[in-house]
UniProtKB/TrEMBL annotation:
<feature type="binding site">
    <location>
        <position position="120"/>
    </location>
    <ligand>
        <name>Mg(2+)</name>
    </ligand>
</feature>
<dbReference type="Pfam" id="PF14622">
    <property type="entry name" value="Ribonucleas_3_3"/>
</dbReference>
<feature type="active site">
    <location>
        <position position="123"/>
    </location>
</feature>
<dbReference type="GO" id="GO:0046872">
    <property type="term" value="F:metal ion binding"/>
</dbReference>
<keyword id="KW-0540">Nuclease</keyword>
<comment type="function">
    <text>Digests double-stranded RNA. Involved in the processing of primary rRNA transcript to yield the immediate precursors to the large and small rRNAs (23S and 16S). Also processes some mRNAs, and tRNAs when they are encoded in the rRNA operon.</text>
</comment>
<feature type="binding site">
    <location>
        <position position="123"/>
    </location>
    <ligand>
        <name>Mg(2+)</name>
    </ligand>
</feature>
<keyword id="KW-0699">rRNA-binding</keyword>
<dbReference type="GO" id="GO:0042802">
    <property type="term" value="F:identical protein binding"/>
</dbReference>
<keyword id="KW-0963">Cytoplasm</keyword>
<dbReference type="GO" id="GO:0003725">
    <property type="term" value="F:double-stranded RNA binding"/>
</dbReference>
<feature type="domain" description="RNase III">
    <location>
        <begin position="1"/>
        <end position="134"/>
    </location>
</feature>
<dbReference type="GO" id="GO:0006364">
    <property type="term" value="P:rRNA processing"/>
</dbReference>
<keyword id="KW-0698">rRNA processing</keyword>
<dbReference type="GO" id="GO:0019843">
    <property type="term" value="F:rRNA binding"/>
</dbReference>
<keyword id="KW-0255">Endonuclease</keyword>
<keyword id="KW-0694">RNA-binding</keyword>
Length: 228
């Protein structure tokens, strides 16, 4: 972790007071499971916290940046910015993928490049940074790493198939769109989800992914393809 600490200090002027928080943030469940006897903590709880912190700060940014935008438009912009693929990109941009601790099986199966793991890692880091140094430090970090990309409009080019499907179907009147997990496979650290999308209780399509969010996007894309 010394190399990671050096990188954070050099690139972002961040020095953790509690290094154990940083270590936990970069420990995937697969690594903790392979070292159960050592009672190692993994990053899922920090991910949960970091997600909430990220949602708050991005919401605050959008609220101030677009004073004339309605709630629905702000929610759409936020969902694109904080989606899994975007956060995984930030993990790579920061070089975090080099330092995440993975189990041997996860490492061999390409986990170090998996969006699910890297997106969760970014949120876990934010959670750890929040606990160690507070909300303002997290905001400064996001202002340095995320907000410049948002200002350039990079995220507006990211296709959100769920939003696209919703917009298409609602031109035909009020509809109820529901995404349901219909199957799960694989070990706990490497699950594959199958999600079905229903419109007014009629199944349109199914999609798979290594997270529920990715499976939902795949299902939505397949549904959109049916209308083209």
């Amino acid at each position: 972790m010394k190399n990671l600490e050096h990188k954070l200090l050099t690139d972002f002027k961040i020095r953790f007071s509690d290094a154990s928080l940083l270590d936990t943030a970069f420990t995937h469940t697969s690594y903790a499971n392979e070292h159960r006897l050592l009672n190692i903590s993994h990053n899922e709880r920090l991910e949960f916290l970091g997600d909430a912190v990220l949602q708050l700060l991005i919401s605050q940014y959008l609220f101030k940046r677009y004073p004339q935008k309605a709630e629905g438009e702000l929610s759409k912009r936020r969902s694109v910015i904080v989606r899994e693929e975007s956060l995984a990109g930030f993990s790579r941009q920061c070089g975090f993928d080099q330092f995440v601790k993975l189990g041997k099986g996860e490492e061999k199966s390409g986990g170090r490049s998996r969006d699910t793991i890297l997106g969760d890692l970014f949120e876990a880091f934010l959670g750890a940074l929040f606990l160690d140094q507070g909300l303002e430090t997290v905001k400064v970090f996001l202002d340095q790493v995320m907000i410049p990309q948002v200002e350039k409009g990079n995220f507006e080019r990211v296709k959100d198939y769920k939003t696209g499907l919703q917009e298409l179907l609602q031109t035909q009147g009020d509809v109820f769109i529901d995404y349901r997990v219909v199957a799960e496979s694989g070990p706990a650290h490497d699950k594959v989800f199958e999600v079905a999308v229903f419109v007014n209780e009629r199944e349109l399509s199914r999609g798979t992914g290594r997270s529920k969010k990715l499976a939902e996007q795949t299902a939505a894309k397949k549904a959109l393809d049916q209308f083209q």
